[in-house]
């Protein structure tokens, strides 16, 4: 049987809900104020002002990864690092492009693909990611992780964007990281480097 002794009248419940909403809004405004104080980007300030007007926690925010959350491109940085350290695998069976072979000059090969667009080149608009994925196909996971972690040391996160994500997650906004790069590279960077920093700064991990 249901225990009716713990029920409250509808007016009392409404008052409690109103109190919760008031605390949520106060938390939102406090987080926005903190973000405004650390952000030097006019674009971010405009975004935060819009959020201040909206005052609705629990929304979804999509943050671009390459060139936004970090300076540079994670796939290209990893490709350059693997080539510079002699860890890039050879692919003598790959076709020559503009007279260049992958084995002789991988970065020129990559640039030829990246600049070509869709004109007969199967990699299309995200050449670095797919080229790196193809080049490393068949590697053991431990080797991939080691090379990725070495390359990550060359990436610089943008403090104002990290602060934005931290504040958004603290406001229970569902933050999604968007990238055309190699998926496992982005996920590892987010889990190993970004999430611990978000937690240290009062935010929550993202996936």
Tell me what you see in this structure:
This protein has 207 residues and is mainly α. Helices cover 56% and strands 7% of the residues. The chain is built from eight helices and four strands. The chain has helices spanning 10-38, 42-54, 74-84, 106-116, 127-135, 141-152, 159-170, 183-200; strands spanning 60-64, 70-71, 156-157, 174-178. A two-stranded parallel ribbon has the order 1-4. Helix 7 crosses helix 8 (183-200). The chain is elongated. Mean pLDDT is 75; it is low at 1-22.
Outline of this structure?
The protein has 207 residues and is mainly alpha-helical.
Low-confidence stretches: 1-22
Mean pLDDT score, rounded?
A: 75
* Overall morphology: elongated
Please state the structural category. mainly alpha
Largest sheet: 2 strands, parallel
- In percent, how much strand structure appears in the residues? 5-15%
Secondary-structure element pattern, one letter each: HHEEHHHHEHEH
Our measurement of the CA-to-CA distance between the termini, rounded to an integer number of angstroms, reads 42 Å
